[in-house]
Write a structure and sequence with these properties.
The complex is a heterodimer. By secondary structure, chain A is α+β, with helices and mostly antiparallel strands. Chain A has three domains: 49 residues, no CATH class; 44 residues; 94 residues, Immunoglobulin-like (Sandwich), CATH 2.60.40. Helices cover 40% and strands 19% of the residues of chain A. Chain A has a four-stranded antiparallel β-sheet, with helices on one face. Chain A has a four-stranded antiparallel β-sheet with strand order 5-4-7-8, with no helix packed on it. In chain A, α1 crosses α2 and α1 packs parallel to α3. By secondary structure, chain B is mostly helical. Chain B has two domains: 97 residues, RNA polymerase sigma factor, region 2, helix turn helix motif (Rna Polymerase Sigma Factor, Chain: A), CATH 1.10.1740.10; 82 residues, Arc Repressor Mutant, subunit A, CATH 1.10.10. The N and C termini of chain B lie far apart (47 Å). Chain B is 63% helix and 0% strand. The chains are: A alpha+beta, B mainly alpha. Chains A and B meet through α1, α3, α4, α5 and α6 of A and α1, α2, α3, α4 and α5 of B.
Chain lengths: 237, 199
Amino acid sequence: METGIHELTAGYALDALDPEERSAYEAHLPGCEHCQRELASFWETTEALAVAASGPEPSPALRERVLADVRAEPLQNVVPFELRRRRLAPVLGAVAAVAAVVALALGLWASDLSSQLDETRAALARKQAAAEVLADPDARSVALTEGDGRLVVDPDGQAVLVVDGLGPAPEGKTYALWVVSHGEDPVPAGLFPGRDGREITPIEETVESGQVVLVTIEDAGGVDAPTSEPIIGTMPV
Amino acid sequence: MRRQHAHLSDEALVALVARGDEAALAELYDRVSRIAYGLALRVLRDERHAEDAVQEAFLQVWRSAATFRAERAKASTWILTLVHRRAVDLVRREERRQADPLTDDSELGQAPEHEQTEEAAWLRFERERVQTALTQLPDVQREALELAYYGGFSQAELADRLGVPLGTIKSRMFAGLARLRELLDDSTQEGSWKPEFTS
């Protein structure tokens, strides 16, 4: 009986095996699909334990040390690039600065520049709203029925949709948010462009108990009612 | 100032790192370093050692990015696994380990208002969620998980120190991790209904 080896998956994921057991487990792993799946899923749980340990930012010097290592050891087929330093400034300031620089670089007229900055201000307001919901100690988490992510709702119904790896909307399209009560028409609740990494989007309508939030793909500019089936849906709040 | 890779997924960044793209590594570092450093600091209890562990783990990311398989784990999971293993190796060598309960309030929870970026807020939210889940575990399971993951103790060392049979420690760890996974999986709520659009 090899009851032992499968049970070692937890110890392996936690790095709690002795060297001999670690080797034995690593020898067992390639041939055991059950353990591969179990390990992948336990690793997600240990990642959560890592998140629970998060604390202060590392010093900027550590970033320099890491990048110096990399520069000292170029790999084959290196793609040349100009290393850009990013100050660990608050994101909000950085966003405003980047938008302003882009506008200037493109030689926009003053009116365009100010509308650009208005858009930036709107983006900042959205970020601030999202941060406030996420910072609310009474906010709770609602799972998605499709897709990778979560809806976070505070007790007032202010909500934020967090999705991972949705990807940019197709050319000429946008992602549209809807708040839906059972048996009623969907209420438009904002648009977002989509991206490959994590995207945090505030819902522009309050979300009440029993409602769900849906995402559809619509023509750029948005529509009054959804024209396609949802690609993301939450459990009822 | 521009982050040329900011729009890419973590997994796409690892693929670029495998081709020797330094900017991709820098972007990955910016995304994962806060959690990575917090984890290393929790295990090693020493800023210099924690920095060493993170630095060595990222060098390993640089060298072995080509071996990363996205179907087996997320890129962030992979990097944090490398950091954790490095930290555990160091702590066992240093013979300096502790595992405090998770109730200490680190600076993350007290970020000044102007630093409340959405990413930091999200991290804080997730941290709270995991800590709450941990408190719901039976004490012996939580103890086994914390001493192993944050303390760097092996199963055999724990059995020895706690005066419990090795098999018991293994079972507690397995049951604890499985229970924690269940607690963190919030997709198993009741009362689902699937809306249909009438066109």
